Amino acid sequence: MSHSDALDIDAFDPGVRPQDDLFRHVNGPWLREATIAPDRATAGAFVTLVDEAEAVVRSIVETCRDSPADGDDEQRKIGDLYASFMDEERIEALGADPLADDLARVDDVRTVPAFARTLGHLERLGVSSVIGLYIAPDRGQPDRYVVNAVQSGLGLPDEAYYREEGFAEVRSAYAEHLRTMFALAGLDGDGEDAAAARAERVLDLETRIAAHHWDRVSCRDAQKTYNLLSLEQLQALVPSFDLTTWARAAQMPDAVLAEVVMAQPSFLEGLETLLTDDLLPSWRDWLRWNVVHAAAPYLSSAFVEANFAFYGRTLSGTDELRPRWKRGVGFVESAMGEAVGRLYVRSEYPETARARMDVLIADLVEAYRRSIGELTWMSEATKAEALAKLEAFTPKIGHPERFKDYSALETDPTDLVGNARRALAVAMDRELAKIGSPIDRDEWYMTPQTVNAYYNPTMNEIVFPAAILQPPFFHAEADDAVNYGAIGAVIGHEIGHGFDDQGSQYDGTGALRNWWTDDDRAAFERLTADLVAQYDVLSPEGADGQTVNGSLTIGENIGDLGGLGIAFKAFRIAQERDGADRGDGAGRRLGGLTPEQRFFLSWAQAWQGKVRPAETVRRLTVDPHSPPEFRCNQVVRNIDAFYEAFDVAEGDALWLAPGERVTIW
């Protein structure tokens, strides 16, 4: 790819000025003409890369099915998993039969202790519980692993769906979905009324559970959600639910629950009020529903289509179920993602990409270092701590040094539900084995073929899988302006999470520790409050007036703002290193654009995206990220370099008075 065509200038909209709407200047024609695939809720740059990675993975898994390498046990297992998913004839013939044993077990639940024991048994089969568990480094002592417990028990995306009037139609559709699934599972008794009654009981019970859930903003709070409890203290919050019985039924070693970080302790106190004999019929129906729901993607087409009708069409506005091969690829990746990744990187990750990313990351870190040193609102003492944290950042690029071992997984090309459950059990055992073991600093929480990136505060690491290191985010041959405006801003964003409203509460070792002076934290919170207010008033297309929740999205907004601002500084560092002058001489222009303009246009091109209205509303409720148009436009409104690059003046739509612009890092 030549330097000049890394930006598709011919696809820009000359009728929209970048000073008024950078997002639509760059993406306007695409937004008007692009269609969202019928099996998708979104379209855009991310989705295109996901599709490309998915096609590569399809080739890998089909090769493993049809001609695995001699003696390669992992390839055989990948092939078995895919073959079992693609065997539609067998799956249709089985119908609801795979549910029979679990539903019979639920029938025997006649006491609250029996409920706890059954829930534990189902935990190993991937059935949702009232308490979610995951294992991670202890935020208070990040050199050890600890179990984290979180509120759970809901079939809708969030507690708000059970109480807000705007979701009344979704609740009605959910009740009908529950009725349908009960009927398909043969739980309709003498007719539709039995299934409808079960559905009503489940919705009523989940509404009661939801009343004890913390909202999304509270759940983001790193301090409030860090409550390290002994098993005895945890049990005291919910005495009717025998945690030891539950854990042993789930085959968890006793050491697992010896200490637990409970994110929402009051949720357990609320759950206790619902664990009563008179509610047992409702709990049995809730268990039945969760058994059916967990297995639905692996059952006959009637279950799959009904599951999609609610979770795909109603909640996200998606028109069509994804083709079976795509769902099969997703199943294989969920079960053996790193085994697939090991094969993916052989052909899809050139070492030249790693070398250029190393330079980009070094420039971004240097830019943060300079920026922190120049901050006017932060004291020298806090700056020293911030710089120490920055120095301790660990970047991971492309793929893990060591891939996960799947030797414990047994696969059968004729047993889809069994494969799914065995894969979940192996993954669960791998996680449980972490308790009491040293921290594995080589572990990745995304596969190489994932189009994404992340920051992990307890490891103080930034991670960039191979699949995101492609256009429009990363061009191996493009000029620096394009790369620093796209992947540079992504790198800056992930580093920025270490300094956002929650990440900034962790130190360089990954410990949840206050390294700020009170005055500095107060100054930081004033800046973030201004940013919250900016986003609170924004309403995207298709949202019917619903606005962004600035408090829910503040962490990602800080990441976007800091990421782009610091990426621009890093771009300047690269120019200095390469001896580039800062004049606007014609020799520095490509496609008639200055490097500075190309930087911001590349940023806008990376956010190309459109979202179905139903999915837009769902995301505004539960997603900590702002809609694509604001991730582009609202960020540049706060960056002085954007004004200079495009001569943005008062009266232009993206103008924000200098005193209202927020710069944090």
Average pLDDT level: 94
Derived from helix and strand composition plus strand pairing, the structural class reads alpha/beta
Low-confidence stretches: 581-587
- Count of DSSP H/I helices: 26
For the biggest β-sheet, the strand order reads 2-3-5-4
**Share of helix, binned:** 40-55%
Total domain modules: 2
Fourth-tier CATH superfamily name of the largest domain? Collagenase (Catalytic Domain)
Rg (CA only)? 26 Å
Shape: globular
- Which CATH architecture of the largest domain? 3-Layer(aba) Sandwich
How many β strands by DSSP? 9
Pfam families: Peptidase_M13, Peptidase_M13_N
Cofactor: Zn(2+)
Domain Peptidase M13 N-terminal: 18-400
Keywords: Hydrolase, Metal-binding, Metalloprotease, Protease, Zinc
Annotate the secondary structure layout.
Layout (H helix, E strand, L loop, with lengths): L21 H12 L8 E3 H22 L6 H14 L1 H7 L5 H8 L4 H12 L7 E7 L7 E7 L16 H17 L7 H19 L5 H4 L8 E3 H7 L5 H7 L9 E4 L2 H8 L7 H16 L5 H16 L7 H25 L2 H24 L5 H12 L2 E5 L17 H17 L21 E3 L4 E5 L14 H6 L1 H11 L20 H19 L17 H25 L16 H12 L2 E3 L1 H10 L5 H9 L3 H7 L19
Parallel strand pairs: 3-5, 6-8
Antiparallel strand pairs: 1-9, 2-3, 4-5, 7-8
Cofactor: Zn(2+)
Family: Belongs to the peptidase M13 family.
Protein name: M13 family metallopeptidase
What does this structure look like?
Strands 2-3-5-4 form a four-stranded mixed β-sheet. A three-stranded mixed β-sheet has the order 6-8-7, covered by helices on one side. Strands 1-9 form a two-stranded antiparallel ribbon. It contains 26 helices and nine strands. It has helices at 22-33, 45-66, 73-86, 88-94, 100-107, 112-123, 168-184, 192-210, 216-219, 231-237, 243-249, 265-272, 280-295, 301-316, 324-348, 351-374, 380-391, 416-432, 480-485, 487-497, 518-536, 554-578, 595-606, 613-622, 628-636, 640-646; strands at residues 42-44, 131-137, 145-151, 228-230, 259-262, 394-398, 454-456, 461-465, 609-611. Helix 5 (100-107) packs antiparallel against helix 13 and helix 16 (351-374) crosses helix 22. The chain is globular, with a radius of gyration of 26 Å. The protein folds into two domains: 4-33 and 349-400 and 444-660, 3-Layer(aba) Sandwich (Collagenase (Catalytic Domain)); 96-298, Orthogonal Bundle (Neutral endopeptidase, domain 2), CATH 1.10.1380. The chain has 665 residues and is α/β, with parallel strands linked by helices. Mean pLDDT is 94; it is low at 581-587. A hairpin with a 7-residue loop joins strand 2 (131-137) and strand 3 (145-151).
